[in-house]
């Protein structure tokens, strides 16, 4: 288990009536009564609604009778930064600016115009703060960034976990399978569902209104222009990020996320059982919004609860790990929740428990053994990263899936599994396959760089799965998938045609 850098909070001694569960907070240092405001550094839960971090920051501001300043920053120097990822985050900043307007909270977006330009901004704001609250996200560069920023924050720093329905620290180990985690959830999730975040924490805030920031801060770290917040092409073009990965055809931001959620529940959820068919739009499409924190799983559960006329009191406080039945909802809602909660949070727990979540060595022993023993098997096709990136393989279905990923920043879920399995089959060895999957997924997928990215990619290599027979070349005992079988099972003709004709790197 990772050593926590910040001790878990013991009590909400300052506020009397805490509203954010203690298990979701880690804190360090003392409050600074001379500070001018409380600072919420929004890094992962990029929304105003159902956000424990914002709620906690407001709670502290209220108890200290200070205004709240919210900093939402976007760096340019992180791996895979591109027009696609920036546009999505910027659209969220535009929504947040609107949602914080007239709230009395000072919302301060910042977008780095060049690498490293944002250095010092957090420290400058933290110097005037009574306390800094930030999001506790267990993956990608965020934990590293937080460790690096820690020394620049004097006094109180609180990390708040808004990641899922189960607080990360409710589990003290990672789980070998979805089944094992589901059993754990059935025994342990219910009490946490009685402590949801406030839907609209801003509406309850009784804090002084924030005044403008020190002009020296605005001069050195200017707020983004309206063009940049609108993700206008010229404004994106001026940033030092990868311009070859174009914005995706879907809008980012909490407003678009709420619309997507509403449409999914009213128009597609009833067909969720057909989601494996590539030509059927039956899944939620929420993963990019969940990834950037534009929507939370609590918000999703609220909407489902209304559809189902469901209340948390309906839940049993134990269960046997069965995929259906525990939630006491319709079959389609149960099936959706199994993805949203069991599968999604399985990966969050993994990343919070194991620093090696993105390394080959984190695979279960049986998978490493069998992959290593087949690492030198002859391969009929071996493709380098470039050919795969350009969808230049002999396999039409695979090319179509890769083209969709490049063009739209998403890939159909079932094909995503096949996509990864083929990369294993066509790479010189399993470690090379892992590197290629991480590179392509995280570069192109809007929802990449997420605990689920590593769940999906490592699943292709055996994580959360069991050994399968018969033992095959290259795969050994790792589950095998073939394009021919997939094409037989699914109706893929239209999909292949569409993406190989229209994809960015149309198949040759
Ligand atoms: C090789 C590979 C790579 C993947 N990379 C990512 C990634 O980068 N980011 C990502 O969010 N998911 C990833 N997945 C998991 C899954 O494909 C996507 O979560 C899902 O397709 C997203 O579409 P949706 O939001 O319409 O899903 P829905 O079916 O509507 O599911 C709702 C939510 O449940 C979660 N979920 C669904 N399926 C899975 C799953 N198999 N594992 C974990 N969580 C799941 C997601 O948060 C999703 O948004 C990957 C899977 C594979 C096989």
Summarize the structure.
By secondary structure, the protein is an alpha/beta fold.
Molecular structure report:
Helix 1 links the parallel strand 2 and strand 3. Helix 16 (396-408) crosses helix 21 (493-502). The longest helix is centred in the last third of the chain and has 23 residues, at 331-353. This protein is an alpha/beta fold and 508 residues long. The chain is built from 21 helices and 6 strands. Strands 1-6-5-2-3-4 form a 6-stranded mixed sheet. The chain starts with 24 loop residues before the first strand and ends in a 6-residue tail after the last helix. The site of flavin-adenine dinucleotide (FAD) has 30 residues, from helix 11, helix 13, helix 17 and helix 19.
List keywords for this structure.
globular; 3 domains; Rossmann fold; single chain; alpha/beta; 21 helices; Serine Threonine Protein Phosphatase 5, Tetratricopeptide repeat; 6 strands; DNA Cyclobutane Dipyrimidine Photolyase, subunit A, domain 3; 6-stranded mixed beta sheet; 508 residues; binds flavin-adenine dinucleotide; disordered N terminus
Q: Report the oligomer.
A: single chain
CATH class of the largest domain reads: Alpha Beta
CATH structural architecture of the largest domain: 3-Layer(aba) Sandwich
Share of β-strand residues: 5-15%
Name the hetero compounds present: flavin-adenine dinucleotide
Gap between N and C termini? 48 Å
Tell me, briefly, the overall form.
globular
Order of helices and strands: EEHEHEHEHEHHHHHHHHHHHHHHHHH
Helix share of residues?
40-55%
What's the number of structural domains? Answer: 3
**Full CATH superfamily name of the largest domain:** HUPs
Radius of gyration: 23 Å
CATH fold field value of the largest domain: Rossmann fold
Give the number of DSSP strands. 6
Helix/strand structural class:
alpha/beta
Tally of contiguous helical segments: 21
The order of strands across the largest sheet is: 1-6-5-2-3-4
Major β-sheet annotation: 6 strands, mixed
Low-confidence runs: 1-16
Overall mean confidence score, pLDDT: 93
